Structures are given as structure tokens and as C-alpha cells.
Amino acid sequence: MARRGGPPEVNAGSMADIAFLLLIFFLVTTTIETDAGLDRMLPPIEPPEDNVIIKQKNIFTVNINKSGQLLVEEELTNLKDLRKKAIAFLDNGGDGTCNYCKGKKDDTSSDNPTKAIISLKNDRETKYGTYITVQNELVGAYNELRNREAQRLYGRDFTDMEAEYLNPETPSSIRDDLKDKVQRIQDLFPQKLSEAETATSN
């Protein structure tokens, strides 16, 4: 009589190898999303200058409370009006030394764009979205003025020139030409956006 065999056995000896290969595959092919932060380039650390006094009129104060309300120059302000007020401050040219400024030349406001500082302060409970929106409006004020001067001097927007200059795929010959132009426009309206306490005088 023939001997009846048991159920066929499954060879599981290589299962560990297969699992390891699958693990490697998924690790290599999976992309991990990362949170995007603020696109800010911090200035280099420089030794503090002694006896630097900044006139109060050269500081444009923006405060955000925990409810998201804006207090601009001690006045409750809507977000939609923030950029306009910032532009008026930066473009004021109060001391008459700015020959490209088109502001009111109010002697109680900023003397010159190179001296104008925007001071942003917020409550610890301020919503992140509100903070980012306010930052965007203030940076937008700088870009609007820079675009105006870039159009006057070079016939194109500063934001386009800067994007092309920062693009690593831009040929070096074009980047070399853009470097001086971008720097010149930045010097006309230097972005001085501070979130620190500033020593002031009247």
C-alpha cells in the first residue's frame, strides 16, 4: 500500500529577504513632505556700533494682538490698508535727500528709505496665519517700491530680476549682469524689517 504524504510545505526561508527588499524599495521611493518656513535671509552678524540712536520718526511700528488686530503707529488699522501705510512711510523722504522718493516729504515721518525701519511685534497667541499675512504685506510694500524703481531704471520689475538672478539655471553671464542691478535697487529701498526692540530718541 502506498504511503500517503502530508500537506506540501511552504519554504519560508527567503521571506525575510523579500521583506527587507520591499522595505528598502519603499524607503527609496517614498517622498516625505516637509513644512515650508519663511523665506528669509538673515543678515550677517556684525559687531554692534556704539551710540547708535534711531529717531522715533524713522520707525514704523506694527503690533499684532492675540485677536489678530493690527495697531499701526498707535492706530487700529485694517490689514488691507497696511501696505499702503508702509509704502507712504518708506517713500516719504522727509529730509529731502531722497531724489527718487515720491512721498509727501512729511518732516514727522521717515527721513530717507535708507533710515526707515519697520518694527513688527506680535503677541505670543497671535495666529501663525495672521503673522504670515502681515509679513507678506510688509514685504509686498518693499517689493512694490523696488518694482517702481526697477521699471524706471531698467524697464522691468525687480521681483522678476531677483527671481532670475537667484535661479541656479540662469547662465552666469546673465547673473553677473543682474547682480549689480538687483543690488542697486535693494540699496534704494533696503529691507529693514525688525522684530526686536529698538533704541529710540525723540
Automatic annotation (TrEMBL):
It is found in: Cell membrane. The keyword Transmembrane applies. It holds the Pfam family ExbD. It comes from the Bacteria. It is a single-pass membrane protein; Single-pass type II membrane protein. InterPro entries: ExbD. Keywords: Cell membrane, Membrane, Protein transport, Transmembrane, Transmembrane helix, Transport. One of its GO terms (molecular function) is transmembrane transporter activity. The chain crosses the membrane at residues 12-32. One of its GO terms (cellular component) is plasma membrane. Its main location: membrane. GO terms for biological process: protein transport. Belongs to the ExbD/TolR family. This is Biopolymer transporter ExbD. It comes from Muriicola jejuensis.
